[in-house]
Amino acid sequence: MDLNDLRQEYSSRVLDESNADPCPFKQFESWFEEATTAGILEPNAMVLATSGSTGTPAARSVLLKNFDESGFVFFTNYGSRKATHIAESPSVSALFPWYALQRQIEISGVAVKISVEESEKYFALRPRGSQLGAWASEQSSTVSSRQVLQEGLDSVTQKFEGADVPMPPFWGGFRIEPVRIEFWQGGAKRLHDRIVYVRENREDPAWVIKRLSP
Question: pTM (2 decimals)?
Answer without folding.
Answer: 0.92
